[in-house]
Amino acid sequence: MMDTLLLTKLGKFIHTVQQTRSHCHQNQRIIRRLFSVHASRPEVTINDVLSGVDKTQAQQMHEECILVDINDIPVGTASKKTCHLIQNINKGMLHRAFSVFLFNSKSELLLQQRSDYKVTFPGHFTNTCCSHPLNIPNEREEKDALGVKRAAQRKLKHELGIHMEIADFQFLTRIHYKAENITADLHWGEHEIDYVLVAQKDVTVTQNPNEVKSHRFVNQKSLKHLMSRAKSEGILITPWFRMIEERFLFKWWDNLEKLEQFNDHKTVHRFC
């Protein structure tokens, strides 16, 4: 009789522990369920979406990005692949990113053409550097956008061989945009809160061919000419660069010596 009573109590105790563990992980399960990649949809399975992708670019798709809400408050993390699947974007998944605009002493803007190996927007012309802070301590730091600036420092070196100091970057503002991949592939897209960083410095460029197909310095006239003929001549432009160029860029460009007047760290400008 005593053994039966002890077994009953032990069973109840184990059940209670299991319930407690279940509640502790409830939020994690909800997030995974909401943004999971379902095997019943073969067009977006893990194996298929990376099939044929350059090995180096595919490896980078495992990097952990910072998920945010529409007010840029961190809410979790997800792989670069998960963040850029259009299936998850259409459910509202949003991540943190940055765009660097680097000018030389002649006030020319450094553009890059993304490599044809890139998963999203291959072969597109865009601003100097565009990428994401990662879910690592020194790139999560919020104060003075230090985490984002460190990420920009890392990627400029990786993509263009450019060494920058943190003090070289000026954080102006943020934009929120969403775009499907071009040419549309039904798999990939972007949905980002994008930190705009501006710098002015003479640099030597050594481009990484896996990341960058070409680069050039342009003045305002040259850029306007490029943008005006892009559609008719089939020149590809990233959507975030076009949005920023149309709305903000030339105001900043005309005032590189007094950019502080454009600092707006409270607003997230909505393009979607």
UniProtKB/TrEMBL annotation:
<dbReference type="InterPro" id="IPR015797">
    <property type="entry name" value="NUDIX_hydrolase-like_dom_sf"/>
</dbReference>
<keyword id="KW-0153">Cholesterol metabolism</keyword>
<protein>
    <recommendedName>
        <fullName>isopentenyl-diphosphate Delta-isomerase</fullName>
        <ecNumber>5.3.3.2</ecNumber>
    </recommendedName>
</protein>
<comment type="similarity">
    <text>Belongs to the IPP isomerase type 1 family.</text>
</comment>
<keyword id="KW-0479">Metal-binding</keyword>
<keyword id="KW-0753">Steroid metabolism</keyword>
<comment type="function">
    <text>Catalyzes the 1,3-allylic rearrangement of the homoallylic substrate isopentenyl (IPP) to its highly electrophilic allylic isomer, dimethylallyl diphosphate (DMAPP).</text>
</comment>
<dbReference type="InterPro" id="IPR011876">
    <property type="entry name" value="IsopentenylPP_isomerase_typ1"/>
</dbReference>
<dbReference type="InterPro" id="IPR000086">
    <property type="entry name" value="NUDIX_hydrolase_dom"/>
</dbReference>
<keyword id="KW-0752">Steroid biosynthesis</keyword>
<dbReference type="GO" id="GO:0006695">
    <property type="term" value="P:cholesterol biosynthetic process"/>
</dbReference>
<keyword id="KW-0460">Magnesium</keyword>
<keyword id="KW-0444">Lipid biosynthesis</keyword>
<dbReference type="GO" id="GO:0009240">
    <property type="term" value="P:isopentenyl diphosphate biosynthetic process"/>
</dbReference>
<dbReference type="GO" id="GO:0046872">
    <property type="term" value="F:metal ion binding"/>
</dbReference>
<dbReference type="GO" id="GO:0005737">
    <property type="term" value="C:cytoplasm"/>
</dbReference>
<keyword id="KW-0756">Sterol biosynthesis</keyword>
<dbReference type="Pfam" id="PF00293">
    <property type="entry name" value="NUDIX"/>
</dbReference>
<feature type="domain" description="Nudix hydrolase">
    <location>
        <begin position="93"/>
        <end position="243"/>
    </location>
</feature>
<comment type="pathway">
    <text>Isoprenoid biosynthesis; dimethylallyl diphosphate biosynthesis; dimethylallyl diphosphate from isopentenyl diphosphate: step 1/1.</text>
</comment>
<keyword id="KW-0413">Isomerase</keyword>
<keyword id="KW-0152">Cholesterol biosynthesis</keyword>
<keyword id="KW-0414">Isoprene biosynthesis</keyword>
<keyword id="KW-1207">Sterol metabolism</keyword>
<dbReference type="GO" id="GO:0004452">
    <property type="term" value="F:isopentenyl-diphosphate delta-isomerase activity"/>
</dbReference>
<keyword id="KW-0443">Lipid metabolism</keyword>
